[in-house]
Amino acid sequence: MPDRHIRNIVIVGGGTAGWMAASALSKVLGPQCAIQLVESEAIGTIGVGEATVPHLKLFNQVLEIDEIEFVKQTQGTFKLGIEFVDWGRLGDRYIHGFGSIGHDYGLLPFHQYWLKMFRAGRAADIGAYSLNTAAAARGKFMVSASDVPPNSPLANIAYAYHFDAGRYAVFLRRYAEARGVRRIEGRVAEVALRGEDGFIDAVKLDRGERLTGDLFIDCSGFRGLLIEEALHTGYEDWSHWLPCDRAIAVACENAGPPTPFTRSTARAAGWQWRIPLQHRCGNGYVYSSAHLSEDEALQTLLANLDGRPLGDPRKLEFTTGMRKKFWNKNCVALGLASGFMEPLESTSIYLIQSGIARLLNLMPDRDFSPVLIDRYNTQAAFEFERIRDFLILHYHATERRDTAFWRHCSSMSLPEPLVETIRLFKDSGRFFRNAEEMFALTSWVQVMLGQHIVPHQYHPAVDLVPDRDVAGLLDSVRSVIATCVEAMPMHAQFIARHCAA
Ligand SMILES: Cc1cc2nc3c(=O)[nH]c(=O)nc-3n(C[C@H](O)[C@H](O)[C@H](O)COP(=O)(O)OP(=O)(O)OC[C@H]3O[C@@H](n4cnc5c(N)ncnc54)[C@H](O)[C@@H]3O)c2cc1C
């Protein structure tokens, strides 16, 4: 039998996507494949991307990366969720906390019991029943404890990281190079296609070197050097649903201890992020250029920093959407080359991770079975679309009418699956997580409630439980969570004790 295994992988791009791919592929396929990564220091990386979701912990675990070392090296902090300010109404504030809310009781999720009591004025805000939200509000953090009963909320704390994206790429580069990945400095000047089937044969560098491969991974950023410029795959534009198309980013000095959450504040024509790291705080205004000038965006950003700005603001342009195919012929696009959705729920790095996992799962041989490629593309598109809908929800579920931007968002038409999700929840608090969609029930529930979508009814089976018992359930959850939060250290103390850079 001739050898049909993939033996040579060429990765174009050395941003977060390129080095995550190089690290994971070298760890998993190491001895079977030669992996080369070409990047250009002159072109540089996007350099933002500082907030993540809890899934990254799993990526690090697969790579056997030591968590403490990782946090130290990247000036990292911990993230229990995202605080949304001024989204539903001016003056609003709610937290989308990771992890569970209360605990399921019988066949029903906790929020169904909460709904009944809340409608009767007998329950606190839903956040009081989430360890993450209650701890984030108090600035507290710890990783899961091993010396508590397994059913304690402290035994299983869901958290993510904030980190310096530049340092993360350096960290992963060291990891990948130590596992045999060959890094090549240079600019790809040309992509050579095979005459017979249009597959990529090689990339040619400006210095003349020619890199051939069986499989090419396009991590070249927004332009999609291979997937778009060479293979003309096409792009699905979602600007009519997610109208922000610009960002201005600037770091500033920390003005206090780092909060264990990302903050997202809705502004006149978009929103501003605040991501505290150990050595500085990352900030950016994501806005719609149809509704706001660059000068106005910059002024708003600079007027709303915790401390003195560090360095010059960076301006970025993007078009929200996804490639029509993520995997085309022998090229898989990851990161910004595959599509982009604004960082409102910190999903881009997660999408890189899930693309890598999907590729490893569907790893082809040199025949590139269309069955594998089709499955990859269907799953990736589904994942992108459901995240897109979750982001649109944030913009659409608002009572704000104070600017043209918010009037547009509140009145725009929605993708049909999102219409259905909102209708079902409004009816009686029901939610179904479809197939492999990323965000779970608790995420959708917190954002819908946080932005004033309150169900008209609750599940009829809630009435099978006497009110006294439902009230008892809520009281006990709330008091257990309050006791746990009391016992947790402050986030800054936790970092100082375990992982100060
Ligand atoms: C405003 C903004 C905020 C964001 N915030 C977050 C966040 O909080 N959380 C999150 O998860 N994600 C966030 N992201 C997304 C995140 O930044 C990216 O997903 C991530 O950095 C991956 O980028 P990349 O590696 O795909 O592309 P890039 O960083 O652009 O890297 C592209 C690479 O390709 C190389 N390259 C390009 N052309 C050539 C060529 N011709 N020859 C050789 N090399 C070439 C470049 O040198 C570079 O190494 C944000 C993005 C933006 C725009």
Your description of this structure?
- The chain is α+β, with helices and mostly antiparallel strands and 501 residues long.
- The protein is 35% helix and 20% strand.
- It has helices at residues 16-29, 56-62, 67-73, 110-119, 131-137, 165-178, 225-230, 294-303, 348-361, 370-396, 404-411, 416-428, 441-450, 467-487, 491-498, and strands at 8-12, 34-39, 77-79, 81-85, 93-97, 160-162, 182-185, 188-193, 200-205, 210-212, 215-218, 235-237, 246-252, 262-267, 270-276, 281-287, 309-317, 321-323, 327-328, 331-333, 339-340.
- The strands form five sheets. A seven-stranded mixed sheet has the order 5-4-14-15-16-13-17. A six-stranded mixed sheet has the order 7-2-1-11-20-19. Strands 8-9-10 form a three-stranded antiparallel sheet.
- The longest helix is centred in the last third of the chain and has 27 residues, at 370-396.
- Residues 12-18, 38-40, 43-46, 48-52, 165, 187-188, 219-221, 225, 247, 249, 284, 316, 318, 335-337, 343, 346, 348-349 line the site of flavin-adenine dinucleotide.
- Residues 12-18, 38-40, 43-46, 48-52, 165, 187-188, 219-221, 225, 247, 249, 284, 316, 318, 335-337, 343, 346, 348-349 line the site of flavin-adenine dinucleotide (FAD).
